[in-house]
Amino acid sequence: MAAATGHNQQTALERAFASKSYKFGDSAIVARAQQLAQQLHLTAESFANQYDSFALISDWSMDVTAQRLKMVADYLESEQRKENSRPRVGPGGTGGSAIKAVPQAAKPTWEDLPDKLDYPTPSAKRQALDPNAVNPGTASKEGTAIKSNTGRPSTAAAAGTPQAAARQLPGGGMSQGWGTSTPMATRPATSTPSTQPPSAFALRVNQGQVVAVLHEHLPGPATYSQLHQRGANVPIRPLGQPALDAGELLFMMEVLETKVHALDERIMDFAESLTAATRHTASSDIARTQNAAVGMPGCGASACPPTPVPMQNSMLAPGGAPPHTAQAATNSTPGAIHPPVSVTSAPTTAERGEVLGMAEPLQYSVADMSHQPVWVAGRVLAETEGAPLNAESLLLEGCRNASGGARVRLDVSCLPAYRLFPGQSVCAYGLNPTGGKFIAQRLVTHVPPPQLPVTGPDAAAARESGLSLVVAAGPYCLTEELLYSPLEELLSYCTAQPPDVLLLLGPFVDSEHPGVAAGGGIADRTADSVMREEVLRRLAAWRIDHPSATVALMPAVRDLTALPVLPQPSMTAAAQALGPPEKAVALQNPSTVSMGPLVVAACSADVLKALSASEHSRVPPGTAVERLPALASHVLGQRSFYPLYPAAPGTCLDTSHYSQLQLPVMPDVLLMPSDLAPFAKVLQPAAWMAGGPPGMEVASAAPGSVAGTGKSAGGAPAVSAAPVVVINPGRLSRGAAGGTFVHVVVSPGGAPVLQRIRAEVKRV
Question: How far apart are CA 670 and CA 592, in angstroms?
């Protein structure tokens, strides 16, 4: 009878855990769970509920282990002891026998964890789990530890010691532009209740887990640190536009003419880049086509052959004319009706796969009636503003110079593949028989920027050097309170694996933090004081221990201590508080910089998420395309860090500074922090080659070329595109839990950078 009762209870326990999708490894673990439930006087359902609450907080998997059962049982036993030690109060206020049940979703407290963990705890975590460190109320009232108003001890040592003085900000902890509030050492300590439960971040068990890795066979951070001496100076040199002047920003003060002018400039710049990219192939194509062609359509009635001409022969020049008459076709009156072409077959790309000749999209209007293929330029938009794109509602709007701002329908039914989004600049090659619908036979959506030329021995030596780069994107604090524990853990990692460059992307003081948004998250402190006390002080202390490292800061639109606009000026005052300009670099948002062997392009705006919600694409059946790197290809192909228009809500896009959003050169690494899944991928040109210019070739690392530049040794420009490493480091903090960051290691050597780079996306 007793055996049957135990079997029934065991079956009920298994059913209770299975209802919450938990799995037992073997019968011994089931028996252990039954024993613990009996000791705690809990039913199977109650014990499963308690385990589920603890597992959600601790971010456990669905496998039930003996160690996890013991942790839950120890916590529940301590809660029961606390409950039994409290005085019983009856309904009338006198002592009675009323018993309170243990809350189903109760969280473990700090006092219960340090002596209950059965696995080795790193020293940093043991220090964080120290009750005296976490709960100042349990420490001596006469202690001199420096505390912030959140009740947590600072990273500095006790006030008055040499270590505390050494870890103050340069210049006595005050920097120009960051206020003159009371120094942290003299701020009154505010105690927090000693029963404050731990956060999900403190209970995480996946610290240091590698989420994604690129080129796993190459040396990692630990190996690189052992093999290569640290301390080499890695200068960070901005590329492209001059520094942005904060006094010239016009967001929310732009007039309509400013926006229209910016959109026109984008279309014309894209068209001119296509013309420049195809100009170098025109001469060779002319010689080839003159030998192969006999009487092209559009050459006049006397020269045209009496027999029909295949369509692929009519696609040799922007107007369908032979190269020697292309200029006459492009100089025709805008809006004129071009002579029809006799067609006997559909467009074929098997022989060439590209349109020959130099493309001049600004010679024709999108509304010109044409019965022969022509090049036009414009931008893609939906029929209804704000509506999602689809194949039936695509419009093509030309610029004012070439098309007078005319709009026509864009027919993409002839295209095997495309990726489109609102505001995208395109150059289309095709027909417009009625003047109201442009039938695209080819659509150029990607014209990558030129490669950075490698000139001089110093530049060549820099390309062959090594680099260790750590990149993280905010928020850097937890949502439960304004606790910067993720930033502390990141700096602890950087102490164990010192990088050459630490690149931090905003937001640093997040305007969307729940406590800040509610008005009580920073209590009596200003946003500048939070930035100084929670972020800059920690970074300055780490910089003192690692003087050879370079720290780079880039703001975000959500930063309370920066101007909320894109493009965004740099945080110059914050960088000055950390050290000299060559060791503490302030980057504007976005930026393209030269960093040792790498050309790095970064933007703290969530471009990937915005493009993911707006893109309309067609992929040939059976073609495997990784969507996230393909989304990132729009930044390269459009030569813009934010090619989407209208911008997503909260972007605060300032179109008056369109040029500051341009991508000046082709980067080696493209950093695109996003709320989407973190990744580190190699974006191959083949992923977007269908939307590239005619004559586009993939850059090679042949002996006669400069590695990774796509240029010949003689310096002749080449229409080519090299692979790019695209990285989404994720967010360092995700709500009340920890997030991810990325560690990039480039091994020294003469091989192309792509063959020497390794990237690890890790959990903090």
Answer: 9
Q: Per residue in 152-168, pLDDT tens?
A: 343 333 334 434 444 44
**Residue 3 has what pLDDT?**
53
Distance (Å, rounded) from C-alpha 695 to C-alpha 354? 7
With a cut of 70, say whether residue 473 has pLDDT above it. Answer: yes
CA distance 239 to 601: 9
DSSP 3-state of 526: coil
Distance CA 359, CA 694 (A): 9
The pTM assigned to this predicted structure is: 0.68
8-state DSSP, 564: -
With both helix axes pointing from N to C terminus, report the angle between 627-638 and 607-614 in degrees, rounded to the nearest 10.
100
**Spatial CB neighbours of 338, under 8 Å, sequence gap ≥ 6:** 298, 319, 320, 329, 332, 368, 369, 370, 371, 372, 374
| pLDDT at residue 645, as a whole number | 92
Strand partners, 388: none
704 token code pair: 């006669």
| pLDDT confidence bin for 521, thresholds 50/70/90 | low
Highest averaged pLDDT of the listed ranges 78-92, 224-238, 594-608: 594-608
CB 604 within 8 A of CB 627: no
Picking from 399, 389, 464, 459, the residue whose alpha carbon sits closest to that of residue 426 is 399
The answer to whether 727 and 670 are in contact (CB under 8 A) is yes
Strands 437-444 and 407-411: parallel
Compute the residue count for the chain. Answer: 764
Question: What is the average pLDDT across 201-213?
Answer: 89
Average pLDDT over residues 204-226: 90
| DSSP 8-state assignment for residue 248 | G
- The two structure tokens encoding residue 516: 């800040």
- Burial string for 492-524 (b: 16+ CB within 10 Å, else e) reads bbbeebbbbbbbbbbbbbbbebebbeeeebbee
**What is the C-alpha to C-alpha distance for residues 745 and 222, in angstroms, rounded to an integer?**
10
Helix ranges (H only) for 86-182 are 123-128, 131-134, 162-166
Pull the structure tokens for residue 29.
């673990």
Structure tokens at 625: 């395309």
User: Does position 338 have pLDDT exceeding 60, yes or no?
Assistant: no
Q: How far apart are CA 288 and CA 276, in angstroms?
A: 20
CB-based contacts of 624, cutoff 8 Å, min separation 6: none
- How large is the C-alpha radius of gyration of the chain? 32
Q: What is the pLDDT of residue 196?
A: 61
Listing DSSP states for 48-106 in one string gives HHHHHHHHHHHT--SEE-HHHHHHHHHHHHHHHHHHHHSPP--TTSS-----PPPPTT-
Mean pLDDT, to the nearest integer, of 687-710?
61
Beta-carbon count within 10 A of 141 CB: 8
Q: What is the pLDDT of residue 426?
A: 96
Q: Which two tokens stand for residue 41?
A: 């006087």
Q: Nearest to residue 477, comparing CAs of 526, 511, 454, 447?
A: 511
Neighbours of 67 (CB within 10 A): 11
482 secondary structure, DSSP code: S
Would you state the pLDDT for residue 457?
Answer: 83
Cα distance between residue 443 and residue 691, in whole Å: 6
Q: What is the three-class DSSP state of 536?
A: helix
Query: Does the pLDDT value for residue 179 go beyond 80?
Result: no
Q: What is the spatial distance between Cα 96 and Cα 87, in angstroms, rounded to a whole number?
A: 9
Closest among 611, 553, 539 to 585, alpha carbons compared: 553
Lowest-confidence segment of 105-114, 343-352, 623-632, 716-725 by average pLDDT = 343-352
CB 39 within 8 A of CB 80: no
Q: Which two tokens stand for residue 45?
A: 């359902």
Cβ density class 76-112: b for 16+ within 10 Å, e for less: beebeeeeeeeeeeeeeeeeeeeeeeeeeeebbbbbb
Residue 507 confidence class, pLDDT cut points 50, 70, 90? very high
Closest CA to 761 of 220, 125, 122: 220
The residue type found at 735 is G
